[in-house]
Design brief:
The protein is α+β, with helices and mostly antiparallel strands. Helix content is 29%, strand content 38%. It is built from 5 helices and 10 strands; from the N terminus they run E-H-E-E-H-E-E-E-H-E-H-E-E-H-E.
Length: 231
């Protein structure tokens, strides 16, 4: 007859919250972390562009930037982009100075900027919208994020994969140590948000030449920390 002393088996990564282990039970148990991920093909995008102009006067800078943004917004709406898919920031103006080695700073002009964020519901139209931005005088692309519309569906799949991974690890460990896996004692879950595929800080003239997003994939991840009793 085998006599077992209290046993604690832990399979964890360095990222497991300390509170999970601090609240471990007194009875024999196994603590595992399950990981799951799903590969998805992006079918939508969110891009942010900006127009930046520096002129001698604040009024000139404002007029130039507002004219460019107004033209861009009108062109987007003419192309079928809804108002709900467009967000425009307020105008930002800052004085620009020259700092000589000697003497006081010299005012040399004013820098004005405004940005527009556009949600693209049909990924195939992304390049055409960037072309519109270029034609209207937008001179900076801050970011292009590739996403999936049905995020929840893929997140559910990743979560199920994480649960199966945690169960598999616990069962394998219990079997390896000749113990019987009991009930789940505790589940600690914090949804892992997927990171969108992103291209950043591109010059406007180069942005429309890049089609790399068409072959991109989005990795949607999830994890779950589970403590099982040992019988």
């Amino acid at each position: 007859m085998k006599v077992f002393s209290p046993l604690v088996l832990t399979v964890m990564s360095l990222s497991v919250p300390a509170t999970v282990m601090a609240q471990s039970p007194e009875f024999p148990h196994i603590a595992t972390t399950g990981y799951g991920e799903v590969v998805a093909t992006p079918d939508m995008a969110v891009f942010k562009v900006k127009v930046v102009e520096t002129t001698l006067t604040a009024e000139q800078a404002k007029q130039t930037v507002d004219r460019t943004i107004d033209g861009f917004l009108a062109s987007l709406k003419a192309a079928g982009v809804s108002n709900d898919s467009i967000k425009s920031s307020n105008l930002s103006i800052a004085p620009q100075y020259h700092y000589p080695k000697k003497g006081q700073p010299e005012l040399v002009g004013y820098r004005a900027s405004r940005s527009v964020t556009v949600t693209v519901q049909e990924l195939a139209k992304l390049n055409s919208y960037l072309d519109i931005a270029l034609k209207q005088g937008i001179n900076q692309v801050d970011s292009i994020e590739l996403k999936v519309k049905d995020q929840a569906k893929y997140q559910d799949r990743a979560r199920l994969a994480a649960i199966k991974d945690a169960n598999y690890k616990a069962s394998a460990l219990a079997e390896g140590f000749e113990r019987q896996l009991g009930d789940v004692w505790k589940i600690n879950y914090n949804m892992q948000h997927s990171q969108p595929v992103m291209m950043r800080a591109m010059a406007m003239d180069a942005a429309t030449e890049s089609n790399s997003y068409q072959d991109s994939t989005l990795i949607i991840r999830d994890r779950v920390d589970v403590i099982y009793q040992l019988d």
